[in-house]
Amino acid sequence: MNNKKIEQAFILAAGFAKRMRPLTDYLPKPLVLLGGRPVLSHIIEELVDAGVKRIVINGHHCINKMHDYMPIIQSEFPNIDFILSIENEILETGGGTVMALRHLDTDKPFYMVNGDAYWVSSPDENTLGALQNEWNTTDNDMVLLLQSTNRMAFGSRVGDYDINDMGKATRSLTKSGTHMFMGLRILHPRLMEGYDLTNFSFLEVMDKAQSMGKLGGYDHKGDWYHISTPEDLDAANKTLFKQAI
User: Fold this and answer.
1) Would you say residue 180 has pLDDT above 90?
2) CATH at 59
3) Which residues touch 93 (CB under 8 Å, ≥6 apart)?
């Protein structure tokens, strides 16, 4: 059981985002504009509202743009401790997490968010609050935020996971599961023990938690927008903000 508010987070922002080209030829994907603001700023605002005090953001692709962004977001949230974890060589999601742990309290859980995640809370619950409540009331080492493929606003519908009656998540190797992973999770750093600073996928860690019976899944009640291409971004801007890219 876990009862304390989670006050640290890691945002993945180092990748090349090839499917988002040409918008990401000279810009990290999390800095593309959604509703006139970088997607990254929307994520940070949600984390701050949830009580997060320290946010680590990794960077590699177009790192100069991330350098330019950091003082802007720091001025918007002056009381938050922002850290840019620079990867001179791309470390993938797993290696990037190992490196980010240098800046996090390894005795406490943290939010881990893909830099292109955009969600809208349902009228009945706050998304991050609901995810933390799920974390607080289980003995899982990781809890994934999952969206039913039947409630996808638009974009690809991939059945990444199934959730059983006990709230445990199981990855669908055939991509025929009932839910899609939203790129947002809570985990305890102890799951990263034994991993070196090398290039590897964080999916290995998720599978490890599942094999230990420590991987939970929470059925998101709100909306989620899978933004992986310029067409997805344009659709999200038009749907949510009545704008076009």
Assistant:
1) yes
2) 3.90.550.10
3) 12, 201, 202, 203
